[in-house]
Amino acid sequence: KKQSYIASKNVHNSQSTTNNNYEVLCAINDTEKDDLLNKDQDSKEHIQSDQLWAYLLNIRPNTTPNMKLIISYVFSIPCSNAYVESIFSHINHLWSDYRNRMDIELVAAELKIRKNADTPCTHFYKFILSQDDLLKK
């Protein structure tokens, strides 16, 4: 039963910690819970950490409300800084020696456009040229 609970958690959905497996959790006895926690280290079965915490926090959901919050914060920390590095790379490209007198707001605006716009530069340039009210400002 514990394996069926964890296997059912392989598909992530927004209600992963709600009533979907309430009946399964209620049917699991303490011995089976202890077996899961004290599983043989040499076993070839692997449980992902998010699935383990979902299981542990759903055993008795009302006894550890703060632990659920802490675990949620821990799993929200990105495991890589690749996105931040890409931002710095864009900033270094924007603020070159040639463009070193740019205002911070201009760099921020251009960076937002680069990261959030999915329109190619040529299309955006043609669009801006067609907007007379923007060109007058």
From TrEMBL:
It comes from the Eukaryota. GO terms for molecular function: protein dimerization activity. Signal peptide: none annotated. Residues 62-115 form the HAT C-terminal dimerisation domain. Pfam families: Dimer_Tnp_hAT (PF05699). This is HAT C-terminal dimerisation domain-containing protein.
